[in-house]
């Protein structure tokens, strides 16, 4: 109980600082939020909640920390804060994967893509920086070819993590419809082939998964009200990697791993991870967290599908 109280006080303090920033927009308050101490504190609670969500009743902490992370993203929407946005989306994906809660991160990823490709790329590569090591970048970075490519690849990886969690779910065709529209729009807008190529591959893989599940849905003989049949909708053996999106997701994650990690093993680990995610979802109600909800969770919307 003592640990529970300390966690509650700490998370509520994070929410309080965020509310002050949203209300006042004062520079000194905003600096308390876009700094590593604040972000690492959120990350600490994300890791603790993710590791213990299945064994303890941490739902109040879960929803509050989700709203805090969403609030941080909304408070710093500009292109210079794209690394901060990436970190926030990564934490939301971790929470969603461990809890079985649907968190609509695709809009956060796609909004970030709108800042990329608007200006002509500067061919000066400048590979001396690490996007993951900063929260805010200088304006000149936004035009760097290497920086734009790294951002696109990072955003594709985050979107792939999100899609992979729901790649076997009956609602995937509906979930992917709007993101596919925006991805195609981005693909048409940008001219740099280094940006177009990975986006096109993601579009193709998502569409393949949509077509696969849509055919399964068309052949289904049960009603949308038959929850038991819906929960067991796709029994296609995710452990063998048969689902169209699984191998693609594994390849995306494999490319992000440090050199020296065996590719075959990492692919299998990702397939096992997807299977474990499915087991979490099978045992948990699927909850949709409204992005517009307040950080205290008072406007949360729940929906079981």
Automatic annotation (TrEMBL):
Compartmental location? Nucleus
The UniProt entry, under InterPro entries, shows: Noc2
Identify one Gene Ontology CC term for this UniProt entry. Answer: nucleoplasm
UniProt-listed Pfam families: Noc2 (PF03715)
Q: Which UniProt keywords apply?
A: Nucleus
Nucleus: is it a keyword of this entry? Answer: yes
GO biological process terms, semicolon-separated: ribosomal large subunit biogenesis
Q: Which family does it belong to?
A: Belongs to the NOC2 family.
Under what name is this protein listed? Nucleolar complex protein 2 homolog
Organism whose genome encodes this protein:
Aquilegia coerulea
């Amino acid at each position: 109980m003592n640990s529970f109280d300390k966690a509650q006080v700490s998370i509520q303090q994070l929410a309080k600082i965020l509310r002050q920033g949203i209300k006042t927009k004062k520079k000194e308050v905003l600096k308390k939020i876009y700094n590593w101490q604040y972000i690492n504190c959120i990350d600490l609670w994300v890791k603790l909640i993710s590791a213990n969500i299945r064994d303890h009743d941490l739902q109040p902490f879960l929803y509050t920390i989700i709203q805090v992370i969403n609030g941080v993203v909304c408070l710093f929407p500009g292109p210079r804060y794209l690394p901060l946005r990436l970190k926030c989306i990564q934490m939301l994906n971790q929470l969603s994967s461990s809890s079985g809660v649907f968190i609509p991160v695709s809009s956060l990823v796609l909004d970030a893509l709108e800042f990329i490709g608007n200006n002509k790329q500067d061919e000066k590569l400048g590979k001396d920086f690490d996007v993951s090591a900063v929260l805010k970048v200088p304006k000149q970075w936004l035009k760097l070819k290497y920086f734009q490519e790294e951002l696109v690849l990072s955003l594709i990886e985050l979107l792939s993590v999100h899609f992979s969690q729901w790649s076997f779910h009956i609602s995937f065709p509906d979930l992917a419809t709007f993101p596919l529209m925006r991805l195609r729009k981005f693909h048409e807008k940008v001219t740099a082939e280094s940006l177009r190529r990975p986006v096109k591959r993601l579009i193709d893989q998502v569409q393949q998964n949509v077509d696969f599940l849509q055919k399964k849905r068309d052949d289904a003989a049960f009603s949308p009200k038959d929850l038991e049949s819906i929960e067991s909708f796709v029994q296609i053996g995710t452990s063998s990697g048969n689902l169209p999106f699984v191998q693609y997701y594994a390849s995306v994650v494999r490319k992000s791993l440090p050199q020296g990690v065996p590719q075959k093993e990492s692919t299998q680990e990702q397939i096992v991870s997807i299977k474990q995610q499915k087991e979490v979802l099978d045992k948990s109600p699927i909850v949709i967290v409204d992005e517009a909800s307040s950080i205290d969770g008072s406007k949360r919307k729940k929906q079981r599908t």
